[in-house]
Amino acid sequence: MKLMRFLFIALFAMSVICADAQKKYEWKQASSAGYTYKYVSNDPTSARFYTLKNGLTVILSPNKKEPRIAVRIPVRAGSNTDPADHTGLAHYLEHLLFKGTDKFGTQDFAKEKPLLDKIDALYEQYNSTKDEAKRKEIYKEIDKTSGEASKFSIANEYDNLMAAMGSQGTNAHTWVEETVYEEDIPSNAVDKFLAVQAERFRNPIFRIFHTELEAVYEEKNRTLDEDNWKLQEASHYYLFPTSNYGQQSTIGTIEHLKNPSLKAIRDYYYKYYVPNNMAIVMSGDFDPDMLIKKIDASFAYMKSKTVQEYNPAAEKPIVSPIVKDIYGPSAERLQLCYRVGAADSKEALLVTLVSSILSNGKAGLLDLNLNKQQKVLSAGAGKRQYKDYGVFVINASPKQGQTLEEAKDLLMGQIAILKSGNFDESLIKAIVANYKLSEMQALENSGTRVDAITDSYIKNKGTKWNDDVAELDEMSRITKQEVVAFANKFFGDNYVLLYKRKGEDKNIVKVDKPSITPVETNAGKQSVFLKSVNDMPLTPMKPVWLDYSKDFQRAKSGNAEVMYVQNIQNALFRLYYNYDMGSYNNKYLPLALQYLQFLGTDKYSAEDITKQFYGLACSFSANAGTETMNLTVSGLQENFTKAVSLFEDLLRNCKTDETALEGLKNRLARSRANNKLNKNAIMSALRTYGTYGAKNPFNYTLSDEELKNLKAEDLVGILHSLPSYQHRVIYYGPTSLTTFTTSLQALHKQPASWTATPAAVKFDRTVQTANQVLFADYKMVQSEIYWVRNLDQYNPGKEAVVSLFNNYFGAGSMGSVVFQTIRESKALAYSTFAILQTPAKKEDNFGFIGYVGCQADKFHQAIPAMNELLTDLPEAEKTFDNAKKSLLKDYETERITKDDIVFNFLANRRKGVDHDILKDIYAKAGGLTFADIKKLHNEDLSKKPYVYCVVASEQNLTMDDMKKYGDVKKVSLEALFGY
Questions:
Q1: With 0-12 CB in 10 A as exposed, 13-18 as middle and 19+ as buried, what is 594?
Q2: Are the CB atoms for 585 and 725 separated by under 8 Å?
Q3: pTM of the entire predicted model
Q4: Is 196 helix (H, G, I), strand (E, B) or coil?
Q5: I need a labelling partner for 653 at 20 to 30 A (CA). Which of 146, 476, 556, 797 fits?
Q6: 713, 806: one domain
Q7: How many domains does the chain fold into?
Q8: CATH at residue 143
């Protein structure tokens, strides 16, 4: 589905679909507060579409659920509009829009500008010079001049501005036809926000460029290690051999990355960053009449300019299969890729529906015939839609002993079933009903709204929002006959088949590390503009704390404690059977819960049960963590009794199925083997090994022998026993507590007394007494480095200083000390962070995790860079003030609602806290000083031993390289994974 699917009102009954289809979603016009706007009738987002005099589109969707505003500023320009000789340019520009203007990001622009002009000229020389020796000399001069210019710059002042006003999620992304800037601000910070954004786009200055360029190099090298990225690029390349959708990489070619032109980037900015090619999209707590006036006043300076939209030449039809092999170290899988028509075409709508008929996660053809029957490890389908074209992908991962070609034949078999019409026509109505079900909740989220509206703006400037809002109604009118006719026309030999095979990718050419002298970040400095914004008055905003005695109700149903929150928003319910029991109590429990989805009862097969849930617009899930477990049923309240009865019958009366068990064993064996090919899984295992030692939660799993000897009756016995163990019932839904408990007593039978919960296995954290390096070999360009250290036992009084320390030191924001130093100043990584972790229960310990992901040839620079920060905490007064302001504003605007209230209560109770601990943190954090976080740093981190967890290729990093940092232990995959 398009993002538009998140934007429809509730389905209160299956019969409502026909009535809904009669609704009209028409453009209307209205005026208010001196401004004329358009809107779509029956649009549940109540979005107003304004066009200002200079052509700037403003789209406002009020949503009073919390005192925040989600913002997107989209520009209709991406890699499709990159110059052919400067691919990656739009993405470069996105990075540079965070560097400030002549008013912020600088201490003295008059002195900085001549140096920046010189850097511009040097890059033009560098770009046009072919002789490598001369290029090195020019780069030395770039590096030298950049160092001089950095004495005047203030790195990441934009992030400091946003953090100080309490913005969250400061970010941006570039893709084929868009660049989008993202924020989430407190509703009382609108004036500050608009002042910063209006200035940001007025006259951006491309400073601190060569270190940011190196960050992009790092980003490029990271994609070389990601097989999923390779598949995505290949699908576009072969589906679109003519247009930029396939022929221009968003991140850019290595050749173009090595030869950037600031002049070309600046020309691109002036060409596309104009008001008639941009929008401001906001959803949240605001008065649109007041907000539109402020936006107009802030952005009236922008001047309209003619923009030539990218209109690709028509792609020729694919007349025979294009089959390609993609190599890399990760597990094997395959993709069948088809080209789709334009976003506003009937074909795009039909493909959306066909995608869900094939795969909706529950009752699609792939779901029932392949996944439910365990004929493959996994299979699915989905569509990525752009303005002019789309990409439809059907994918599969083979099970143990199955070839990619065999998996491909199974996918083709399901396409044949679709083309033959061998599916129930009621599936179409069920698909629409289930989409509307999921959209009930999504509609409440401002971030979802702005993403959906932004997507519409990128594709057609929002002019077809009426069609987007009406999409599900249009889909509900499509008949089975139309689907079958379309499938026979759409699915032919017109596909690209990509086989992701395990093996060495011989086409990888990494971007080499240039020699970079660290630049000044001037973190403690601030511009006059920053001070003026920070001095702007804010209407005080009071935090709202949970009161557990009022915000949810408690009752009893049989022996079970009931925790209840009423849903006053829509007709949905969520019911949980919540257990203080998990895999630590029984390591077979997660497997039993997996097995459940493949089982039937005397009355129904597993497929019948899945179809019934989907037809009811309800679902169930069963998931065990290490120490807790949830059995969940959710969906339309009107179908509560049927759905809960169906789940109870399945749980209590499921029957053994030997065929299903053999399929599960096969798939588990393949999944376990695939995990050993996944660098992220390997790193997670290595980190856990560093935290707990050889016996740890990650490798607490079944041995190969135990997996082989699994018995169906044992797993079914575990499932049948679950209602006898102590658990609590959590309900979020529209019915009253009394009505709910009465109905639950009839549906959920409980024993007279609970069965004793099995004792949980215990894992002891290691005590670091000396530096150690744990190493796992993986064929990759990058090196992944984690710092691990265990700290003292949980103390709720420490949470405030830990939270403030994280905000200041390195919890991921661009203004943090770690990011400023390692990425901005030294250009050692694209991604880096450091954080003190708060335990989930009172018996556990705080811990420290630091991370740098860098090229292997930067390894010996990256480790000392982080170690310097761990030894001596840099003091930057303004950065600290911003970190504290940001933390306090987060708490002032955070609202915990719905069933999250109960889970918040349970989480705090596990910590030994009987109230909303955020209230304590907020009260204490306001009085903390830099001395407090310095004390924490000295006691917990400075001059302490660490475990360095390293995943890299032995071809790029030797044991001798790592011995400089501690005793080295190469950990085998068997030791890491436990099998």
A1: middle
A2: no
A3: 0.94
A4: helix
A5: 556
A6: no
A7: 4
A8: 3.30.830.10
